[in-house]
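Re-run with default settings, no changes from the original entry. Doing this only to confirm the output is reproducible before filing.
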Amino acid sequence: MTSFQSRAICPPWSAGVTTYSGYVTNGASGLTLISPEGTRYRFDPGALCLELLTTGGPGAFARYEMLHRPDDLADWLAASRLRLDPAAVTVDADDLAAARRLRDALWRVARARTRDETPPTADLAVVNDAAAGLPLIPQAGRDGSRSWRTPLTGAQVVATFARDAVDLLTGPYTARIRECGAHDCHLVFVDTSRPGQRRWCAMERCGNRQKARALRSRRAPG
């Protein structure tokens, strides 16, 4: 596991726009993660719902848990592509539990898709139930900017993540949900590139490590 043990660096708040693959920002999308070696790198999973997977997960991923308190979820939302101001979001214990439940279900669903397996029915039910909630409500500004109607709640955030997951799982890119090709990295992303040949969570992280290993192998005696 490479990157869940540290918090993402929170960039300045900005508005987002919606595409088939998630809520993207006007600037660079993705999260700044820190590897176990202390290297910072940019990871863009290509979808809002897959960003949530970087906060921890079920089973062995539980040791990387980042969402311990309601405030942890509110703070993390500033780093997500929603770019929400933590002060504008009210998150309670139930919202936190719902977010973690959705995240863990998404982990199992996404990993099933990376292996061309049928996602667990119970986990799909968690996603669908969460998607039935009221999501964040977008608003258009006179200057063409996009913002969210306030007040914002954690329940709306969970519904927004779940609806994004439904869009991804039922859309044309569901077959491009992949796991990083590095043997020690389990980050999941959707390959939105035109050629559809993305292999790594990030070239500056796992891609470069693989290139370095290949170079050492070629230079090794014999």
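The two ends are 32 Å apart (CA to CA). Residues 1-21 have pLDDT under 50 and may be disordered.
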